[in-house]
Amino acid sequence: KSYGYSIIHEFREGKRGGGTAVVFKTGLLVSVCKISRIFETFECVAVWLKAENTKIILVTLYRTGNLTSIFSNELDLLLSDISTKADDFIIAGDLNIHFEKNSRTIKQSLEVFKSYGMEKLVNESTHVNGRSLDQIFLFSKNKTLKCSAFAVEPLNSLRSDHFPISCTFYASLSGKYFKNIHVRNLATVDKVSFSTDLKDVLLETTITSNGFGSAVHNLSSACKSVLDKHAPIITKSISVVDNAPWFDKEYREFRKLRRQAERTKHLSDDAFLFYK
Q1: How far is 154 from 95, CA to CA, in rounded Å?
Q2: Residues 105/66, Cβ–Cβ less than 8 Å
Q3: Within 13 Å, how many C-alpha atoms sit on residue 167's CB side?
Q4: pLDDT score of 266
């Protein structure tokens, strides 16, 4: 902190120290992004990065132990959570996965990332033994978030068997869009006074001999004048939020069912057909 940096730290449960963290320059708009569950196969911390009208989710993730299909299932749950919150998100950290190998579980993990449109950025070795264990994955719905000046630094003074990865992310900031809406504040209307005025104006409204249409018009105008008196139209300017309509609650539930069927497709024909 004495160097002008702050930290958001998710401590390792039941143990002192450890865990995952995001270190950032003090003054940047960074806040905790809550994840709805606790995972067994990895540790993570998620934050919001805010700049102008752009919001990005950054997740630092640490995975250890044997790589099993449980990791893929939990990764899918994590991504289904954050993908409904932001159009741009980054997953970075020590995944301890040999991405250069071609095993079933590694393919399965990569398929989960790809199913969310995420791009794998690290192809170089990030470990002293020549393995690519550390990774950065990026998704940007409208391609407004891009990565450049990417480098793995094999010569480092951190006394770690993992190499530092440096890169620069650029976000194209889009302006905020507004639209005008017209509303009435009906909650503040005095019902007794409104009823009295409405009764009086209806009594004063006469049905002329100009026909039924004219009578309806006069009645509508009289009622509208009472409504305008008690709840005048107010014009408000609101910001337009771009949502992802294709990734709604129903779609998320179907993704969960598909992942369950994927795990059991070899056990029954019904599960295999649902998976397909």
Answers
A1: 18
A2: no
A3: 18
A4: 58
C-alpha to C-alpha distance for 77 and 140, rounded to whole angstroms: 19
DSSP string, 196-211: HHHHHHHHH----TT-
**Half-sphere CA count of 9, side-chain side, radius 13 A:** 10
- Read off the pLDDT of residues 131-183 as tens digits, 9 standing for 90 and up: 888 999 999 988 888 888 788 887 767 778 888 888 898 887 665 567 888 99
Q: How far apart are alpha carbons 33 and 12 in whole angstroms?
A: 17
Using the structure block, give the residue that is written with the tokens 């024909």.
Answer: 269
At 141, which amino acid appears?
K
In DSSP terms, 45 is beta-bridged to 60
Q: Is the pLDDT of residue 235 over 70?
A: yes
Beta 145-152 vs 165-171: how paired, if at all?
antiparallel
- Note the pTM of the prediction, 2 decimals: 0.64
> Can you say how many angstroms the Cα of residue 83 is from the centroid of all Cα atoms in its chain?
4
Q: Decide: 47 and 31 in contact? Cβ < 8 Å.
A: yes
Which residue has tokens 């009578």?
Answer: 215
